[in-house]
Amino acid sequence: MSKLPNIPTSIFSVMSQLANEHGAINLSQGFPNFPEDERLLQISESIIRENIHQYTPMAGLPSLLEKIANQTLKQYDRKVITSTEILITAGATQGVFTAINTFVNQGDEVLILDPSYNSYEPSVLVAGGKSVRVSLNEDYTPNFNRIESAITSKTKMIVINNPHNPTGRIWTEQDFEALETILEKHPKILILADEVYEYITFSQPHISFNTRPKLVERTIIASSFGKSLHVTGWKVGYLIAPEKLMHEMKKVHQFLVFSVNSFSQHVISRYLDVVDFNEISKMYQRKRDLFQNLIKDSRFELMPCDGTYFQVVNYNAISNTNDVDFAKELIQKHGVASIPISVFYADQTDKHMLRFCFAKTDETLIAAAEKLCKL
After folding, report:
1. What is the pLDDT of residue 56?
2. Which residues pair with 86 in a beta bridge?
3. Distance CA 67, CA 228 (A)
4. Contact between residue 311 and residue 358 where contact means Cβ atoms under 8 Å apart
5. Considering the domain 51-271, what is its CATH architecture?
6. Does the keyword S-adenosyl-L-methionine apply (predicted)?
7. How many C-beta atoms lie closer than 10 Å to residue 249's C-beta?
8. Are the C-beta atoms of 212 and 248 separated by less than 8 Å?
9. 3-class secondary structure for 86-127?
10. 131 and 164 in contact (C-beta within 8 Å)?
11. pLDDT at residue number 204
12. Average pLDDT, 10 consecutive residues per value, the chain (375 residues)
């Protein structure tokens, strides 16, 4: 008997396949279509023949762990111990799966804030837990009354994605203070903080759980080099957590993947000496601004985009069709692929919203916008 009998084919696969069939411009899946940094490629070429192709230590390449610790100190003023508080994972998705399956047991409940990324609930189900889906507000900010009401004696963990996929919203200082007030009453609840878009923020700074003294000792933070350095296919991410939590997660990680791709770890370790994360954020802000400017006179309504490389739009002025069918129609009749937001909700809440990925070349964004402005 399958542990995931009701999990359908991913909407990302469905929309990308449709886009391929109809020759549509693909703004659905969240990956860049522009070239990698030339410096990254040069480092890759320069070390490919070095003796770097065997297993790294289980927790990760020591030099990469040290670079992560240095970056965490620089960015968040948090000192992490490389040997006990950082774990290199096969992408953030594996990190999320490892964290959930380490601590969630049969019958435990995990709060997931909807709309939510589609890997959280399957990880909970495989662990034998129960997902409790809590809807965000209409503007996609957290609703703390709903969150507090959803907590029971069985609540083991809360999953928080910030900056948020699919909506692009970012938590404020007031949001963190509200969460801290609630969790003071529930000292045993763990936090899984998915911060894979931490270096892609715009109008307001990203506040990391790394900076929250009241929460950091119960928080597991997932980060992604794939997202931050736009090498999604390399599948290299990492977890940061206090030693008492990390010690247990390493046990699961050891028998899930043991260690992560050695070549990618070596390249990233050297690349971190030269890359500037602020420049990455500026590059994506320029792309966001370009895409917003290109479609601002269309009949799509732009939703706030504080971070990530996703722009959510409302199409009420164009159609009353449900969002899944409208997204398919947009591919088949108008040649642009997107992701309908309802698929990120447990109850398929449909507010006539679509998600476009603007991590694309300017030429791709211009061509897509030309089509969208004709609707």
Report:
1. 98
2. 240
3. 14
4. yes
5. 3-Layer(aba) Sandwich (3.40)
6. no
7. 23
8. no
9. EEEECHHHHHHHHHHHHHCCCCCEEEEEECCCCCHHHHHHHC
10. no
11. 86
12. 84 90 94 94 97 98 98 98 98 98 98 96 97 97 98 98 97 98 98 98 94 98 97 97 98 97 98 96 97 97 97 98 97 97 96 98 98 97
Contact 341/323 with Cβ under 8 angstroms? yes
| Structural fold of domain 11-30+277-372 | Aspartate Aminotransferase, domain 1 (3.90.1150)
Cβ count within 10 A of residue 233: 10
Which tokens go with 22? 């109809």
Tally the residues of the chain: 375
pLDDT attached to residue 10: 84
d(CA 315, CA 304): 15
Please tell me the predicted confidence (pLDDT) of residue 183.
98
Which residues are registered as beta bridge partners of 193?
160, 221
* Residue recorded with tokens 């030269």: 274
With tokens 């398929």, the residue in question is 348
Torsion of Cα atoms, 345 then 114 then 95 then 53, to 10°: 60
Sheet holding 301-302, edge to edge: 301-302, 310-314, 353-357, 339-340
What DSSP line would sit under 191-206, residue for residue?
A: EEEE-TTTT-B-SSPP
Q: What are 113's two structure tokens?
A: 């804030």
Query: Smallest Cα–Cα separation from 371: which of 315, 342, 333?
Result: 333
> Which tokens go with 6?
């009701």
pLDDT at residue number 75: 97
How many helical (H) and strand (E) elements, i.e. helices and strands, does the chain have?
14, 13
| Structural domain boundaries in the chain | 11-30+277-372, 51-271
On the question of a common fold for 11-30+277-372 and 51-271, the answer reads no
Closest to 11 (Cα-Cα) out of 35, 28, 33: 28
